[in-house]
Amino acid sequence: MDKPELPPPELQRVKLDQHDSVRSHVQQQVCDEVQRLERRIETLRLTKAPHAAIMISTYERMISRKKGFLQNWDL
Length: 75
What we know:
Low-confidence stretches: none
Strand content: under 5%
Order of helices and strands: HHH
Region (Disordered): 1-20
Oligomer: single chain
């Protein structure tokens, strides 16, 4: 049995960022991640862990990058 011929790869590509359901899912996931990081920061501020300041700084950079991602993709 012969296999059907597929269109060239450039015609098969799906631009996922143009599908509302995918955009909505990505936005929700990133927003959830930002909220989790913000809660971690609040928890760290209440503790006296020796490296809390470094961890807070790292989490704040991650939040900034995630918010930048949302803004760049108009999410």
